[in-house]
Amino acid sequence: MLIRSGICADADRVFALVRASVLEEQVHDLNTLEDLPTREHERKWVEMLEQAPEKVLLLAESQGDVVGFISFNNGHLKRLAHQGEISISVKQEWRDQGLGRQLFLALFVWAEKHPRIEKLSLQVVATNMRAIHLYQALGFVEEGRLQRQVKIAEGQYIDLVFMGKWLNRDIK
Asked: Which residues form the N-acetyltransferase domain (predicted)?
């Protein structure tokens, strides 16, 4: 397993992974097929992450196949640049094998090299207990919850949980 920085040339493979994840997850993913970005939008997103010094896309690759990714995107506003949002996706057949944990650990190593980054944040649907347990094991704590924020179907809602992790830095 190779974990490396994503580049523009990876955009189509990232797009395919996201599309497959949406098809497989149904309930745990916030996106629907109608919400997915176009390939061009995905290319621009990967390019933006590649070129910005305090943003990153890390890919997990096995035998040339992208099997997972994690991204970090901090705010462009000065007062929000110390923190940012994480997004993660792992191919279904690679889950429950420690790949998500490996991607997070690689992100933590990357974040430690960027002194401005102090806090990592993410959102997860409350029913995705496998993910929540992983995030808690990695030091994330629940910071808030929006009740019935995600509408799955008519009359069927799920809470959206906000979680954060402060990096081991002197917070002043």
From this structure: 1-168
Domain coordinates in residue numbering, the chain = 2-166
Could you write out the DSSP letters of every residue in 49-67?
HHH-TT-EEEEEEETTEEE
d(CA 148, CA 39): 31
Residue 148, pLDDT above cutoff 60: yes
pLDDT in tens, 53-65: 899 999 999 998 9
Candidates 25, 12, 23; CA nearest to 130 is 25
The CATH class of the 2-166 domain is: alpha beta
**Cα pseudo-dihedral 86, 60, 152, 123, rounded to 10:** -10
Angle of helix 99-112 relative to helix 129-137, nearest 10 degrees? 40
Spatial separation of the C-alpha atoms in residues 162 and 140, rounded to whole Å: 10
- State which H helix or E strand residue 37 sits in: none
Please report, as a single letter, which amino acid is at residue 120.
L
pLDDT at 69 over 70: yes
What's the CA gap between 71 and 88, in Å, rounded?
Answer: 6
Query: CA 56 to CA 46: how far, in whole Å?
Result: 9
